[in-house]
Amino acid sequence: MPKLTYRESKGIFQESGTGVDFTTEINGTTAIRKKVKLGTSDVTLGSADAGCLVFLSASAGTRKLTLPAASNNAGWEATIFLAATGSNYQIIAGAANELHGSWTHGTFATTVKYAPIKAHNILKFGSYNYTAIHGVRVGDRIDVRCDGTNMHCTVLANASGSVYKNGETVTTE
Fold this sequence. Notes:
Layout (H helix, E strand, L loop, with lengths): L2 E5 L3 E5 L4 E2 L13 E4 L4 E2 L7 E5 L5 E5 L10 E6 L5 E5 L6 E7 L7 E8 L1 E5 L14 E6 L4 E7 L4 E4 L2 E4 L2
């Protein structure tokens, strides 16, 4: 089956390969976002997954989503949504201490709290019984953007969570 490609200079045309490519020639953006479902097995994202939507949809167990290393991935981004509760999710940096940003949560609709994410390895997000992440809701999200050195994360969640750096736990309460 041929690959369907769009270029502003040529319009839609066929070429060898499979799939669809709507990347523009001007800025490299894509009109259609790839969707990744983290359900029954762990997922490792790579450079080719830039711009993807990730749906955390496992019904039980712990699932890991590993991000690509920041080096050579400037401009890489992903949006991660909690699509089902009942599981534990680990968002893992592709290289040590690359996660930076902020975790903002509504503390179960009572007050808004903020916690920094500074040079961490793992974000824990879900229904962990031994941390403070008991009130996650479908629709909680993490936006990840890469500057080529670090992955910058913005977490908007109903409840607090935990971030990890070299075995150290920091709860975002």
